[in-house]
Write a structure and sequence with these properties.
22-stranded antiparallel β-barrel; globular; single chain; mainly beta
Length: 446
């Protein structure tokens, strides 16, 4: 659940995403087609192609995809954002999210905007995953002239160890997907050692940037080098060095490649991390003086905890003239009895005392899922509403929908032969494959 909270900045919780598609709804040819698909399920490429065919097809088939792609943990939640206008809350946007509560996977986000008192489609994002729960595809569509129009697609490829080896992004141009950007990742002993980024130019992939990683004996990154290609040659841009004490990161040194007065890596910034009982209590950043290149104190963040939860974040800047730390901002966090954050208060220093700046207040339901977040700013000695996020969770349990691999596992018979599946060749191309399955599923639901 937590990863979805971070991704969407809100928690998606137990709601029902009702899909009424069961194996018994399928005719016998469809069941046989499912069985034939078993041989392909283990192939990540075939699985991605299957998902891609669904997501690239028409709206009726996309609806079926949303129903059968989901598993028994699929849930739905809605997020409403409102702005404070003329003393009242005014609707702005609505997000409807379909996600898997068990695997923290988001399958679809529908964004709508409020126009003339009604919700109007604006953007739709769909995700697909392979049998190992790896994200394999993301498609972004926009609503134009009453229909969904493809905009952007990203596909991911993995090796047998579930390491991401390739990422390709494409833009929708003239009714087809056109290559735009690609990343190729290399691994050694399970560790990502290189990411090569390429751009599509004049019908071919052209090297763009190269990021390399070095590791210590514990498998931790100790060096990261970023290069850019220009005129067929690689030029260093930045380098980051990491230092550890025990299991904790204690120093990060940022360097940039300089050509004057002497070509080479030059320090640009350094951050020290201090801990107490495993909790990060201080981040101190130094930046290089423009003329001398010497690293000097710049800013510092100090953290205060209660039972492992941050209660205060003190931000300070270093006074060059008097060489002392000067208070800048103070962020205070308040929790309820279940350690749900119910308030985040930001104040700034006027040199004498702390002055209110902004505040975020949150409410939760009995399951500790947020129901409301209100953002306010301090104006003329009072808190003025700015935005409000409201979360709606449908009650009830999942209706028991199943994925294609689930259905295959129910009916697969290893003794089936291609000859026994001839009546499942719906499109008559001489093969029984996932295209036939799509057609059969459409037939069964019509």
């Amino acid at each position: 659940m937590l990863s979805i909270v971070l991704f969407l900045n809100f928690l998606i919780s137990a709601s029902s995403f009702s899909a009424h598609f069961e194996t018994e709804d399928l005719p016998e040819p469809a069941l046989k087609a499912l069985a034939s698909w078993q041989a392909h399920v283990s192939s990540s490429h075939a699985a991605r192609q299957f998902q891609g065919d669904f997501l690239d097809s028409t709206e009726p088939t996309r609806k079926i995809w949303r129903e059968i792609q989901s598993d028994r943990d699929l849930r739905q939640a809605e997020l409403y954002t409102q702005f404070w206008r003329n003393g009242a809350w005014a609707d702005s946007t609505k997000l409807t999210v379909a996600y898997n509560e068990g695997t923290n996977q988001i399958f679809e986000i529908l964004m709508q905007v409020r126009q003339n008192g009604v919700w109007v489609n604006d953007m739709n994002i769909q995700w697909a995953y392979d049998g190992n729960n790896n994200q394999t595809q993301q498609i972004l569509q926009t609503w134009e002239n009453g229909a969904w129009v493809n905009s952007w697609k990203t596909q991911w490829t993995y090796d047998g160890d579930n390491n991401q080896t390739e990422l390709i992004s494409q833009a929708w141009e003239n009714g087809a997907w056109a290559n735009s950007y690609k990343e190729i990742s290399t691994y050694e002993n399970g560790l990502n050692t290189e990411i090569l980024a390429q751009m599509w130019q004049e019908g071919t992939w052209v090297d763009f940037t190269l990021t390399t990683y070095s590791y210590d004996s514990e498998g931790r990154v100790i060096e990261e080098i970023y290069q850019m290609q220009m005129g067929g040659e690689w030029f260093g841009q930045s380098k980051t060095l990491y230092t550890y004490t025990g299991d904790l990161l204690t120093e990060r040194l940022e360097q940039s490649w300089e050509y004057w007065p002497t070509p080479g890596w030059t320090n640009s910034s350094r951050t020290f991390y201090t801990y107490e009982n495993g909790d990060l209590i201080e981040e101190l950043q130094q930046t290089a003086d423009f003329m001398s290149g010497i690293l000097e104190n710049n800013n510092r963040i100090s953290y205060t905890y209660d039972n492992g939860h941050i209660t205060e974040e003190l931000q300070q800047i270093f006074g060059i003239d008097n060489s002392v730390w000067i208070d800048n901002n103070l962020i205070s966090y308040t929790y309820d009895g279940n350690w749900n954050q119910i308030e985040e208060l930001t104040q700034y220093s006027d040199g004498v005392s702390w002055v209110n700046s902004e505040k975020e207040t949150s409410a939760y339901n009995d399951e500790n899922f947020p129901t409301e977040v209100i953002y306010q700013e301090w104006q003329e000695n009072h808190w003025e509403n700015q935005t409000k996020d409201s979360y709606v969770y449908e009650d009830g349990e999942s209706s028991g929908t199943v994925t294609v691999p689930d259905m295959v596992s129910y009916i697969f018979d290893p003794n089936l032969t291609p000859e026994q599946l001839e009546d499942a060749d719906v499109n008559g191309d001489g093969e029984v494959n996932i295209v036939d399955l799509i057609l059969l599923i459409n037939q069964s639901l019509n």
